[in-house]
Amino acid sequence: MRRLALLLVVLLTAGCTGSPDTRGPFPAGADLVREAATSFAAVRSVHFAAGVNGVLPGFPLRQIEGDATLADGGHATGTADVQDGDGHTKFPFDVHDSQEPPYPVTAFLGPQGGLKRLLDGVTDAKTEGRENVDGAPALRVAGRVPAAVAHSVLAAVDADLNVKVWVADDGGPRRFARLWVQIPPPDNHLSPVMIELSLTEQQS
């Protein structure tokens, strides 16, 4: 059950690189995110790599990497590193949607998936600059995701999210390349949780 829960965090995550080149002008942030959402809706398989900085109750994920596909009804494989008491444990996972997991691949990939909904929900989008992501040029857009949208994707979240979205700027389709999410803490005595997600090898 814990391994299935990890898949939820995996496909929600974020990505952060160095300082961007802020010399504009740049395309409008709202346009970039909208085009990236449209492009990502057609993606049927992807390689993902994610990391979590902080503690999200119920999700002891530290790092995860693998491949997810909508083929054959939905399938994801890879390795996960989770907090385990004072230490951590790394293990492989192999999840098929046909096994009726609580967080299937089909809940995150595809035109109705959680990642597409997250992109559709971005507000106050502002293009911050240009930088390389996984060796390719991309534009970085900062924005917010309302709590209602965030909660529909990840039930444990009940607050607005600060996000950064990296959109490919290599002359091809505006591909959704990376995501960074900041989840506010449940009280002021705790630090926010930061999740980073990189999406490569995307196939429609």
Characterise the protein shown here:
The chain is of the alpha+beta class and 204 residues long. It has one domain: Clam (outer membrane lipoprotein receptor (LolB), chain A). It is 17% helix and 42% strand. The protein has four helices and nine strands. The protein has a nine-stranded antiparallel β-sheet. Helix 2 (29-40) packs antiparallel against helix 3 (114-120) and helix 3 (114-120) runs antiparallel to helix 4. The model is unreliable at 1-17 (pLDDT under 50).
Topology:
Blueprint: H1 2-10, H2 29-40, E1 45-53, E2 61-69, E3 75-84, E4 87-96, H3 114-120, E5 123-133, E6 136-145, H4 147-153, E7 161-168, E8 176-183, E9 193-203
Antiparallel strand pairs: 1-2, 1-9, 2-3, 3-4, 5-6, 6-7, 7-8, 8-9
Largest sheet: 9 strands, antiparallel
Please bin the fraction of helical residues.
Answer: 10-25%
Number of DSSP-assigned strands = 9
Uncertain segments are 1-17
Count of helical regions = 4
Q: Roughly how many Å apart are the termini? A: 29 Å
